[in-house]
Amino acid sequence: MQSGDIISVSFRPGMFVLSFILSALGAYVALEATSKIRNEDGGLRVGYVLVGALALGGVTIWGMQFLGMAAQRYPFAVGYEFGLTFLTFVISVVVAGVALWYVGKSAFSAKTCIVSGCATGAVMAGVNYLGMDAVHTQGVLSWSVLGVGASILIAAVAATVSLWLAFNVESEAQRRTASVVMALSVGGSHYIGVLACTFIYVPKPGDSGLILEGAYLPYVVFALCLAMLGVMKLQLARAARVYQKRLEVRMNELLESRDTTHPG
């Protein structure tokens, strides 16, 4: 390969599928957390907002994008700049948390959902391109304005759809279907963004700074994301049991009070 050659875009099928699986699992946990995000008085439960932010931003969005970048085939070894990669994770979680808080802080409305979805989608697209910039390859990127615009539009639609689903699904079957829809939406935004750029081979000297690399790195990220989702799922189940027990105690107290007030 010579300098200036265009690197064709192709993906490893296994990693491509894993990126959607991880995104769907993250969306499922995020939906479960969001379903309990408001308490009986209409206030927000901060713990559930945090779990939702980590699942939606850290796994559904960031995890999917990271595995999506790892799914792309290169004719040379690639690495990931730690600083930028970690920054994209933080931004994804914070933006997801703010979006869930903004939509959930009052009664659900289409207006707040659309406003938050568009803003979140724009940031999500930015994180996607920032993450691509964190990939260290022997090449440079040339962007298609039309493709970039399409990816941003899809990201805005994906974020809006995700927020709407997060606050409107009720049954277990709906949650499973919605998690797949969210994964497809987020994945569509990422892969359209990848196709919006042209990779041009340009040999580069060794990079300075902390560079993450290794053939098994994407699988490590996948495993860590699964572990994080597992811990959050267990925490949600524990919180549900505690809430159910507290509700039963409250009901018993009300019944006892009624029996005392109206004997016989």
Automatic annotation (TrEMBL):
Annotated InterPro entries: MHYT_dom
Location of the MHYT domain: 11-200
Statement: the UniProt record of this protein carries the keyword Transmembrane helix: yes
PROSITE patterns named among the record's database cross-references: MHYT
Chain segments annotated as transmembrane: 12-31, 43-62, 82-103, 110-131, 143-167, 179-202, 214-236
GO cellular component, one term: membrane
UniProt keyword annotation of Signal present: no
Keyword tags: Membrane, Transmembrane, Transmembrane helix
Name this polypeptide is given: Signal protein
Organism per entry: Pigmentiphaga aceris
